Amino acid sequence: MHSADLAVEAYPIEGTAHTAELMELPMRMPDGLDLKIIEALQDDPTSTNKAIAKSLGVSETAIAQRIRSMSEDNLMRVVAQRDIFSGPYNLMVSARVRVARGFEKEVIRHFVEMDEVYTLSTSLSTPDLGLTILVEDRHSLEQLLRSRIGVIEGIEGIQTLIHLKIHKFLTDIGFLDLKMPPMPSSNNVNEKDQAIMALLIENGRLSNREIARQLGISESNVRQRLKKMADAKIMRLSALTHPSAAGQSAIAALEITAKPSRIDTVIRALAQRKEIGLLTSTSGLTPVFAMTAANSVQDLMDMVRNDYMAIDGVTDIQADLHGKALKRRHDITRIL
């Protein structure tokens, strides 16, 4: 493993700290009851306050207050998520960008404003920024890189990695305090369904009756549309928790080299690891990509060295430790 990749100094980005332990924390950490409520909602985001109260032996009012408080504190929230490829996009790409000193703020501003940028974070290794880009196809990717990203003043270099197949995509972790751009329109989802999704992205606990009232349609129509979108794997509800509240203070992107004959074995082994949220096959020299997390940088390094490197077929791992999250769409996932 390239252990130096976990310690190399990056260009300083104003307002960020060069340690994953200093990731921004939610206003408060969950207590025992909060964690039980989160677990119940992650098992079934549609579970009613009454059902949760009965299972936990507390009042329905207490459950409602806790859920509201966690949402207001950006600790946990139930939201709707649309499949990543149900909209205008068909291709997901990871990118690492090197930024010249003095241009960090302006480069970040450009990326935050780009609809195609799905996630954006500082990097504690080099290059300085890590991005996930969503595009329609490879031609669109080439145009984006040359005509819009390549011309941004201050960008000194960019490396891209195309994700060929997504094997695992968990999105029960989210930075709920980050401002999210409007959901991109889609020819594959009609206007009324998009309106329903937009309401549920803001508050996944809205009742069908309230959705119907706000949109001026019948409750049965809302129910039918939600079932149709769920059956078609266009949308789902998820209970998102802040990474630190979920014990994930250190997050890293891993580019994994494996023996060609053992790639499938490596992917199957990594898919079983609960801390790995994203796992893909890629077009690069490193055929496997993963996003992983741990409670501390040391725990993450130990896990990579002692667990992942021990997987039969793994020959090398390059780890890019993430710093501050600057943008992350929590309304998009991959529904497998």
Characterization of this structure:
This protein has 336 residues and is of the alpha+beta class. It has 10 helices and 11 strands. The protein has helices at residues 32-43, 49-56, 60-72, 104-113, 138-149, 191-202, 208-215, 219-231, 263-271, 297-308; strands spanning 76-83, 91-99, 117-123, 129-135, 155-169, 235-241, 250-258, 278-282, 288-294, 314-328, 332-333. The chain has an 8-stranded antiparallel beta barrel with strand order 2-4-3-10-7-9-8-5, surrounded by 4 helices. Strands 6-1-11 form a 3-stranded mixed β-sheet. A hairpin with a 5-residue loop joins strand 3 and strand 4 (129-135). Helix 2 crosses helix 3 (60-72) and helix 7 crosses helix 8 (219-231).
Indicate the radius of gyration in whole angstroms: 20 Å
Strand content: 25-35%
Q: Compute the number of helices.
A: 10
Taking the alpha carbons of the first and last residues, their distance comes to 30 Å
Neighbour order of strands in the largest sheet: 2-4-3-10-7-9-8-5
Summing up helix and strand content along with how strands pair, one would put the structural category as alpha+beta
Key phrases:
single chain; alpha+beta; 3-stranded mixed beta sheet; 10 helices; 32% helix; disordered N terminus
Short description:
Helices cover 32% and strands 27% of the residues.
Question: What topology does this entry show?
Answer:
Layout: H1 32-43, H2 49-56, H3 60-72, E1 76-83, E2 91-99, H4 104-113, E3 117-123, E4 129-135, H5 138-149, E5 155-169, H6 191-202, H7 208-215, H8 219-231, E6 235-241, E7 250-258, H9 263-271, E8 278-282, E9 288-294, H10 297-308, E10 314-328, E11 332-333
Parallel strand pairs: 1-11
Antiparallel strand pairs: 1-6, 2-4, 2-5, 3-4, 3-10, 5-8, 7-9, 7-10, 8-9
Helix pairs in contact: 2-3, 7-8
